[in-house]
Design a protein that fits this description.
Elements: H1 21-37, H2 41-53, H3 62-85, H4 87-106, H5 111-139, H6 143-174, H7 179-198, H8 212-235, H9 240-262, H10 270-274, H11 276-306, H12 311-317, H13 319-336, H14 343-360, H15 369-396, H16 401-441, H17 448-481
Length: about 500
């Protein structure tokens, strides 16, 4: 997902093209696809898993939240581990651990076992993602080839979520929901074989040290935040436990920032997030995924629960989103980014995604796919595709080599924590409003099924309004905070950051 600017004197000597570099991209892309699609592949299978394991509506989001929270909460740690022990070694360890966790999840006999396996998947994904980005950066050193490689990688990162929904539908329809987890064993096995033969390692940094207090404070604060938001739906926002979690999160994250200012080897050097271009990109990424993950959750239940779609048909119905994201990322943003300021792609992209959500707010219990869902998906996907690549490129442009891993991890953290909070927060909004609607409108018990269906859709559309407002906020922040100039390809052998990269602060 990210582009690194490695600025060491030894890099010029390593600019000899790796003859296997495009095969290496296939291996790294497969690993990235596995990580990204696993955030959504169980979305389509979730109704089946919920019935099989007896999950409550209030707890079902933990199948997604456990993964995204562990992934997002531990990414900064994963980036530092890769710096310390080496990228290829961390990459392989992450792949093997991810495969084992997936096997445990597929064999889960209870909801608790599935939640735990998903959290374990997220933890190993947090090791896998930063090391994959570093390997990609050191494999592609020619500016033109780097642009193509990161364009492909960005398309995978953006469309992987929707691809996961399709794959989840196929596996659930023809095999079983458990295969949405078992399939990762195959993916990881292929990636391990490819990594052993095609990827070249880069030595770890001896001076790198783990910031243990930073890990405890940062990860603890993020976990408390998402857990507090998820518990607000069943308990209420004024519940003592919810307030305690949210206040505890604020305290831990505040202490984290204070500690990072004085730590000798901070987990997250504050100069990375103080730069206005990177800060704007991190915020835009987080807000985009906050809305995206919530919309995927709602659309899945709308298509299966209201329209009566099968899991396979649900997955196929998501295809336009994947195509639109790939089109926006590779054919629009990748071509225009060297010529226009990044914010002129980010902000309009977020606005288009918000327009797609506006269409979804008009859903009824009898809305058709062609008139409502298809136009919304095309607008939503194309907008996200246009926004994702400049966000990632701007966030990671001009970063010193010793900070490249943690910067990449911060981009991924914004994405995964945004998705985790979005799933929990928007699910809270939807279920609360549905409950209120049914309570206020159920007059005749014979009309219960109709009223409940209407209430569910009303809850979905209300939550979509919230998601749309989040997208609009992201557009505003991108337009105001991101002041970088067009990112021109650097001349061969240049070591200085491109104009406008990482500046503007």
């Amino acid at each position: 997902m990210s582009e690194y600017r490695v600025q060491t004197s030894g890099d010029a000597a390593r600019r000899v093209a790796d003859p296997h570099r495009w095969w290496a991209l296939l291996v790294i892309g497969l690993a990235q696809l596995m990580v990204v699609l696993d955030a959504t592949i169980v979305n389509v299978a979730l109704p089946s898993a919920q019935r099989a394991l007896g999950m409550s509506d209030n707890n079902r989001q933990w199948v997604i939240t456990a993964y995204t929270l562990a992934f997002g909460g531990l990414l900064l740690l994963g980036g530092r581990v890769a710096d310390l022990v080496g990228r290829k070694r961390t990459f392989l360890f992450g792949l093997i651990g991810f495969a084992v966790a997936s096997g445990i999840g597929g064999a889960a006999g209870s909801s608790a076992m599935l939640f735990g396996a998903r959290a374990l998947q997220g933890a190993f994904a947090a090791l896998l993602a930063p090391s994959a980005l570093s390997l990609l950066s050191t494999t592609f050193t020619d500016p033109k080839e780097r642009s193509k490689a990161f364009g492909v990688y960005g398309a995978i990162a953006g469309a992987g979520a929707a691809i996961g929904l399709l794959m989840g539908g196929v596996l659930t329809e023809y095999l079983d929901w458990r295969w949405c987890l078992y399939v990762n064993v195959l993916f990881a096995g292929l990636a391990v074989l490819g990594a052993l033969t095609l990827l070249h390692d880069r030595p770890g940094h001896e001076e790198a040290r783990l910031d243990i207090p930073g890990v405890v404070l940062g990860c603890g604060g993020l976990i408390a935040l998402v857990y507090g938001v998820s518990e607000a739906e069943p308990r209420g926002w004024e519940d003592a436990m919810v307030l305690g979690l949210l206040c505890g999160s604020a305290l831990l994250l505040t202490l984290f920032v204070l500690w990072q200012r004085r730590a000798r080897n901070p987990l997250l050097p504050l100069h990375i997030v103080k730069d206005r271009n990177r800060a704007g990109s991190f915020l835009t990424m987080g807000l985009a995924t906050l809305g995206m993950f919530g919309v995927f959750l709602f659309l899945t239940y709308y298509m299966q629960g209201i329209l009566g779609y099968s899991p396979l048909r649900t997955g196929l119905a998501y295809l336009p989103i994947s195509g639109a994201i790939i089109l926006g990322s590779t054919q629009v943003s990748a071509r225009l980014l060297p010529h226009v300021p990044p914010r002129l792609l980010m902000a309009p992209g977020m606005l288009l995604a918000a327009a797609g959500m506006a269409v979804l707010t008009q859903l009824k219990t009898d809305s058709s796919y062609v008139s409502h869902l298809l136009p919304a998906e095309l607008l939503f996907g194309f907008g996200l595709g246009c926004a994702f690549m400049p966000v990632i490129s701007t966030a990671t442009q001009g970063v010193a080599a010793h900070d490249s891993g943690v910067t990449s991890a911060t981009v991924n953290t914004a994405q995964q924590v945004g998705g985790s909070i979005g799933t929990a927060l928007l699910n809270t909004v939807a279920t609360s409003i549905t409950h209120t609607y049914v309570h206020d409108h159920l007059r005749n018990p014979r009309m219960r099924r109709t009223v409940v269906r209407e209430g569910v859709v009303h809850g979905f559309t209300a939550a979509t309004w919230v998601a749309m407002a989040v997208m609009l906020l992201g557009a505003v922040l991108a337009a105001v905070l991101v002041t970088a100039k067009p990112i021109k390809p650097e001349p061969t052998g240049a070591g200085a950051p491109a104009p406008g990269a990482g500046g503007g602060g």
